[in-house]
Each structure stands twice: as structure tokens, then as C-alpha cells.
Amino acid sequence: MFRTASSVLHILPIAGLYTFLPKYLESQFRLAAHTANMVSGVGGILVMGIGIIISGVFILRVKPNARLVAAWIAFTAVVYAIGMGILMSIGCPMDDFAGLDRANGVFMPECSTCDCNPDKFGPVCGADGRTYFSGCHAGCSSVNMTDGKLTGFGQCSCVPTLDNSTMTEVSIGYCPLQCSNFVWYIVLFSLFVFVHSTSEVGSMLLILRCVDPRDKAMALGLIQFAIGLFGNVPCPIVYGAVVDSACLVWDTACGERGACWLYDADVFRVFFHALERIKRIPAFHDELFPSRVPNSRVVAYVHYQVCVYVTQSTSTCTSVYFHLYP
Hints:
Layout: H1 2-29, H2 33-62, H3 66-87, E1 100-101, E2 106-107, E3 124-125, E4 131-132, E5 142-146, E6 149-156, E7 168-172, H4 181-197, H5 200-209, H6 216-232, H7 234-244, E8 247-253, E9 256-263, H8 265-288, E10 300-309, E11 315-324
Antiparallel strand pairs: 1-2, 3-4, 3-7, 5-6, 6-7, 8-9, 10-11
């Protein structure tokens, strides 16, 4: 039972993390969508695969006992929870957004302009290095076209220049992020994922170790069923609610709310990693119970079938299993 609970609590943060990690990287470090997906695959999935292979080779060569394997799984859960706490403090601020009222989740024009549509989010970058909600919020009165494509706005009365003059231009998109925490985040994230992934093989072996040999297939089936029902089903619901709670600007169409245009970076960072950390605490508790298995290594099972023939056509058979230890 504890192994099943641990497996479910293990898959919840992992599935949620890799589902919303690209969106988190896009919001926190302003990466392009394709770059965020590539970083998530290399720094997360690839590193996790390497950790699983290395841990499998180690267990094959060293053959640690069941208690040591369970203790290592509990240790990796603690390291992963601590790591999420560390990553919670590594991010980039949102101090370059002009007119952002984070308390109320609205953008206010920097100067007196005409009424701007608060639902039409089109970020532009000014010469002052700040990102404006739209060309209207920057006080722009003209558009710049290149080869028939909109490249920016001109005569923006709300954007000061370096010489303190007005009526400058803005370009389409966010301003370059002046933050170097992205490299540190990916390095530490990959490290904690690698440590945590080394528990995958041992976790599966403990499942097989805790049941009778003839019940292994049934045990694996029940655990996968529990993971799918209690892990994969609520995962997008829980994480989706957490991600949506950090949204500042929603896209609206016909009076209905659509996708999120802009997230509160600080709220997103705290909620995203705090949920990962909270779910690893009960998983660590569940690992403590399997760690109390006998300190031994099972090398092989010997199976005997004893049959008592009542008649020539009927018989009663009993299976006897012997565990061989070194």
C-alpha cells in the first residue's frame, strides 16, 4: 500500500512538472516557445533518462540490499524537495513592465492618452528598456510598416528617450530581459532531476521485492492502474489551476475568457515549485515504511509444486517458494 501511494505521489509532480515546464520557462525567462520546449527536453527528459540508466547499471553491479535501496529513494525525495525550495528563489523580476499594477492585475497608461483597450495585449519595447502593454499604452499615434508587416509604432508620447525628449518609437515584442539567472536555474534543475531519477529503478525493484513472485504481474498492473487513476488524471487539473492562478492578463473573446497573455512571474515561480515540494513530503513518508524490510539480497527463487493425487483424474497441488540469499 505504501509503495503504491509513493508511486502515485511520485508521478504527480513529475507529470505536472514536464507538462507545464515549457510554459514556465516562457513566462519566467521570456524564451521562445521552441526554445523552451527544447530546453525542457534536454535539461529534463534527457537528464532523467541518463540518471535511470546509471542507477540501473549501479544496482546491477553492486546489488544493494532492499533497505539501502529504499533509504536511497527516501533520500532522493528529500533532495528533490529541497531543490524545489532552492529553485523557488531563482527567477527574473517583472520590474521592466511600464504601468503594471500587479496588485490589481492591470496596466495603466504612463501618460494621458486616449482610452486603451485593456483586453488587447500587444507588448512593445520602448527606447527606455521597458515593455509596454500595447502601442496605445505607450501613447503611439502612428505605425511602422516594413514589407507590409507591422514592425512597430511611432510618435509615442509616453516613452522617453535617452536625451529626455519625447515622441519616440517602439518595437513589437518584449524588451530583452536583463537577467542572468536562466543558466543557474537550468543547471540546478538538471542536477536535482538527475538525483531524483536515480530512484526510478530501485522503486520498481522494491515493488517486485515486496510481493510474492506469482503476484508480481498483478502488483505491477494495480500500481499502474493507481498511477493512471490517481496520478495522471488529477495532475493536469491541479497544475492547471495553479498556473491559472498566476495569470495577470487574460485574453477575452465575445465576453469569454481565453488563454493567458501574461503571468505574474513571482507568483508563478512560488506556486509552481511549492506544489512540487509539497507533494514530495508525503512520498518521503511512504518510503520510510518499505525501508524497514529485512536487510538482505534476494538472488533467486526456487519454486516447487507439491501435488497430492486423490484419484487418477483429480489432484490437489500446492506451490512452495524458497528465497535464496547470499
